[in-house]
Write a structure and sequence with these properties.
The complex is a heterodimer. Chain A is mainly alpha-helical. Chain A has one domain: ABC transporter involved in vitamin B12 uptake, BtuC (Orthogonal Bundle). Chain A contains 13 helices and 2 strands; from the N terminus they run ααααββααααααααα. The N and C termini of chain A lie far apart (about 55 Å). Chain B folds into 2 domains: about 230 residues, no CATH class; about 230 residues, P-loop containing nucleotide triphosphate hydrolases (Rossmann fold). In chain B, a hairpin with a 2-residue loop joins β4 and β5. The C terminus of chain B is likely disordered. Classes of the chains: A mainly alpha, B alpha/beta.
């Protein structure tokens, strides 16, 4: 019988949120954002720190989200300035370097000891059968759905969407056509930073580990983005739910529990074997 | 550069001996661990700098090596020096297992896949501890290398040996294939080489090197924990390798040294050690923004400029005055030898004999890109030893036709017959192996090779002496670095690479584009002489109708994916439909001839 705990539903929402923001950034800026979880972790821990100083939770959350957005914008500026025309391998490598730097800054500021992050809307939950859903899980899953819908609309229907799509494919051409590259890039990066911080704040109260355990949510988030093939927002959203559910199932029996950490890998394996079953050639003729 | 490398090697040996003689226990430990880190950086150099693949699980392979050594010392009596190769083998085997599903992946997907693989191993395998270590079994260094100086020397010798092997591999065929696959997968397949095997070999070699490093690490520390092999550790060492440029040994060595020494200096300065990764991140980003290769590549480029301030381009002997004398380019290719006789068994003929069969026959080829029909029912044949021109306006389907013949389009209708054999379902590299070679519109020649190194890959084992081919195309000497060639010469080199294996058919996609003046004239003459010199038939895509008229025996015109004319250059270039297609006149209805 399927038992979904509070942690699993919160994780589902957070994975979906992170997976969706990875895909959004990949489509809009052409970068695989390995730092999405660590930037979100900054937001969550800043929120916790401000709350610990006696700030009201709402204000603490705004500060945390704003900080994450600012960090993401800074990363985005570095990419727009130095790596706009770099090839995909170099951009991915640069993203790894940036992620390593962000982790180091995070450890320096927050340490890696476990911290308690306040629960958003504590105590409000419903249970139906074996599924327990908290209000915060519903909110984060709802926010992920909203993000998917909003981004689909922006990408397909708005001038901003056309501009960022042009930017991600042909940055120089877009700039020559008068697209304000830096402004657009920072907007997109900042948005994904804010979104991932929100997801992370919700999930952080259920995660006992320290800063690194939040940052390492990049693994399930990447698996979710991979399910969406780095293109489809709805599939990345669904991917986040699938990863969380399978992880939760693996805790169902004690003998399976130790393989929980392998779930993103197994999912990635299946997805890649399926999507890459035909030989695909690199683009350049 | 080789002399500089020899001097660098001597400096390494001298430094190692001095350190082993004079350094105290603390420094020996620190430097030993620095050299082990350098070994991991060497493995990053192979996979990223040489083969261009982003792997985020190098420390996982090191952990697998450490796990193996731990298990072997716990369960067996094997001496440490026997455990180390086994650690490499186990890491290599795991590398192949992980590589097989990852082998079609490039850039993005491979990085994601290795990242989640690293996380899975770290959490499922390493989290349970390393064999024997929980029971308090310490892995000790071998008796002869007991003591800090002895073990330091063992690590230094291992690193030196691995570096020497890797440097030799880079110059051997395997390493040159790695550079080629980094430049272009298509080009590797077009030279008849398996892309998958090339990438897998780089992945496996780098996994084995990392495995050795892990084995040494466990012997240095006696015990290890999974924390040393976390995904973040792999990312950090990749970042340090990016900064220093692990594609060259000195870069890997610097990455190792600074990776271990910077934290130490920081704490000497009273600063926290954990800002070291920030320094690597900043350095890695700075190095990447300056282009490939990191610090070591910049150093080598500087050295090269110092030693050879201005290299005058080699005077290239005029084509007609070549010494090789194998070709008389003033003679026209044998235009009589084109009677068709498809019934002749091709297996009875040597591959390069310009016999009397249609060497390449396309029947009813159609290709659709979504709703666009790029090729529509195209049939043509090529007589052996001739040059067939393929012309048509932009978007007519010329390059698509080359892709279809060379095998780069997954699904097309119709058949492609090469000397009697249906090759229409074969992978590109198998078609190349059977004698279909192609060039690309944009040069895919790997910049890290020499001219001779590239042509040797292209020729396989059966080419004519390279000097003849170089002379035929008026190329600089074989030792010249591709990187130092201008773009036009690189294109000529690519064309030379397609014919040097004496294939049955070469498909040249606008080979003369971007060449001008004297170079162009000489190149066109060299093109015209390909059939008589190399025995290959040529399918030539070309926009310049003067070139077509000067070189081609027959010309086929494509427009909107259909053949609209087929005949001698004179017939075709005056054909009303061709004139209409080129000049855009609306009176002449395009009609297949």
């Amino acid at each position: 019988m399927l038992t979904l705990t509070v942690a699993a539903t919160a994780a589902a929402g957070a994975y979906a949120m992170l997976g969706v923001s990875i895909v959004v950034l990949y489509r809009m800026a052409g970068v695989v954002n390995f730092s999405v979880a660590v930037v979100g972790a900054f937001g969550a821990y800043t929120t916790a720190a401000a709350f610990g100083q006696g700030w009201p939770f709402g204000a603490a959350m705004v500060v945390g989200i704003a900080l994450a957005a600012a960090l993401a914008m800074l990363t985005g500026l570095i990419f727009a300035r130095f790596f706009a025309t770099a090839d995909s391998a170099a951009r991915t490598a640069a993203m790894i370097a940036a992620t390593v730097g962000l982790f180091a800054v995070g450890f320096r500021i927050f340490g890696d000891a476990p911290r308690s992050v306040p629960v958003l809307f504590p105590g409000v939950s419903w249970s139906a059968g074996n599924v327990v859903v908290t209000l915060s899980s519903i909110i984060v899953i709802g926010a992920a759905i909203l993000t998917v819908l909003l981004m689909r609309w922006v990408l397909a229907r708005t001038r901003l969407g056309t501009q960022v799509r042009a930017m991600s494919e042909r940055p120089v051409t877009a700039e020559l056509l008068g697209v304000p590259i830096y402004a657009r890039t920072t907007t997109v990066w900042g948005f994904t930073g804010a979104v991932s911080a929100f997801g992370m704040i919700v999930v952080a109260s259920n995660l006992p580990g320290g800063f690194s355990s939040l940052g390492f949510l990049i693994f399930p988030a990447m698996a979710a983005a991979l399910i969406g093939a780095f293109r489809s927002l709805p599939l990345a959203f669904a991917g986040g739910l699938v990863v969380a559910i399978i992880e939760s199932l693996s805790s169902y029996r004690p003998s399976w529990a130790e393989y929980r950490g392998a779930v993103p890998f197994l999912i990635a394996l299946v997805v890649l074997l399926w999507t890459q079953r035909k030989q695909v050639w690199d683009a350049a003729r | 550069m080789r002399r500089a490398e020899a001097a660098g090697g001597a400096a390494y040996v001298a430094g190692v001996l001095l350190i082993a003689r004079f350094a105290d226990e603390f420094w020996l430990f620190l430097l030993t661990s620095a050299l082990i880190t350098a070994l991991v950086a060497v493995s990053v150099g192979v996979i990223y700098d040489n083969a261009g693949l982003l792997s985020l699980c190098q420390m996982t392979f090191a952990g697998i090596g450490a796990w193996t050594v731990g298990w072997l010392s716990h369960r067996t009596d094997l001496p440490f020096l026997a455990q180390l190769p086994l650690a490499a083998m186990v890491a290599l085997a795991v590398g192949v297992l992980v590589g097989v599903p990852a082998l079609r992946l490039r850039g993005l997907n491979l990085a994601v896949f290795t990242l989640v693989f690293s996380a899975a191993v770290s959490r499922v395998v390493f989290a349970d501890g390393f064999p024997g270590l929980l029971e308090g079994n310490r892995v000790g260094p071998p008796g002869f290398a007991d003591g800090d100086a002895g073990f330091f020397l063992l690590v230094a010798v291992t690193l030196g040996l691995v570096a020497a092997v890797v440097t030799a591999l880079r110059r051997a065929r395997l390493g040159r294939w790695w550079f080629s696959v980094r430049r272009s997968e298509r080009a590797v397949a077009a030279l008849g080489r398996s892309v998958v095997r090339t990438k897998l070999s780089a992945f496996a070699v780098s996994a084995a090197i990392a495995g050795v490093a892990g084995g040494l690490l466990v012997a240095l520390n006696g015990v290890v924990s999974g924390a040393s092999f976390e995904p973040l550790e792999s990312m950090t060492i990749l970042t340090a390798a990016l900064m220093f440029g692990a594609g060259h040994f000195e870069g890997a060595l610097l990455a190792g040294l600074f990776g271990r020494l910077i934290p130490n200096f920081l704490s000497d300065l009273g600063l926290p050690q954990d800002i070291a990764p920030m320094i690597f991140a900043a350095g890695g980003l700075a190095a990447l923004s300056q282009g490939e290769g990191g610090l070591s590549a910049a150093l080598r480029a500087g050295l090269r400029r110092l030693r050879a301030p201005a290299v005058a381009p080699e005077p290239v002997p005029a084509l007609v005055a070549r010494t090789a004398g194998t070709t008389d380019i003033t003679a026209q290719p044998d235009r009589g030898a084109s009677e068709e006789d498809d019934d002749v068994d091709p297996s009875t003929r040597p591959a390069n004999d310009p016999g009397r069969v249609s060497v390449l026959t396309l029947e009813r080829i159609s290709v659709d890109y979504g709703a666009v029909r790029a090729l529509d029912d195209v049939s043509l044949h090529m007589a052996p030893g001739t040059i067939l021109g393929l012309i048509g306006p932009n978007g007519a389907g010329k390059s698509t036709l080359v892709d279809a013949v060379a095998g780069f389009i997954g699904g097309h209708d119709g058949t492609v017959t090469l000397a009697g054999e249906d090759i229409g379902r074969l992978a590109p590299r198998l078609r190349a192996g059977r004698g279909v070679r192609r060039s690309f519109q944009q040069s895919h020649v790997p910049l890290d090779l020499s001219i001779g190194g590239y042509l040797d890959l292209a020729a396989g084992h059966s080419g004519p002496p390279l000097t003849d081919a170089l002379a035929h195309f008026g190329l600089p000497p074989a030792a010249t670095a591709v990187r130092s060639l201008d773009v036009g010469t690189r294109r000529i080199l690519e064309v030379c690479g397609t014919v040097v294996s004496r294939p049955r058919v070469v498909l040249l996609d606008e080979p003369a584009a971007g060449l001008a003046g004297h170079t162009r004239e000489r190149f066109v003459a060299a093109l015209a002489a390909i059939p008589s010199t190399f025995g290959s038939s040529v399918l030539l895509i070309e926009h310049d109708l003067d070139v077509v008229a000067a070189t081609c025996d027959r010309v086929v015109v494509l427009n909107f994916g259909r053949v609209i004319a087929d005949g001698t250059p004179d017939e075709v270039l005056t054909h009303p439909a061709v004139v209409a297609a080129y000049l855009g006149a609306s009176n002449g209805r395009a009609e297949p001839s």
